[in-house]
# Entry
Amino acid sequence: MFKVMYAAQGVGLAAPQVGVNKRLMVYNPEGDERKWVSEVVLVNPQIVARSEGTDEEEEGCLSFPEMSGVVERNKWIKVEAQSLQGKKIKKKFQGWEARIFQHEYDHLDGVVYPDRLKKEERKKVQGRLDELVADFGDGGAL
# Structure
């Protein structure tokens, strides 16, 4: 999954994005395969707490090429997950890493970032979404 993520110049990827029906995500906040020490793999992650505070930032997605939009996310989250070896992980994410995690976590629940766009942001990308549907069909089928 890291290989696909880096090839697409991304910072995160969820298993469902590559046709794997598992609750697994990978990411590297650096987005640089040479900085492999920053790679994170999480299995069966769960958000167990969230900040009340939010911020809005531009997001893109490997599943929606050539488009982006401003998405509101929690400033911090507390997460429980497992490593690939089954070791329990508990961690608080904030800032950029919290945003990456929440974006990939959404994919595990069948939510994609255009679903989170406010009305005005959605209008900005609707033309591109329509092109993608025309190219790949409803539901993204080839």
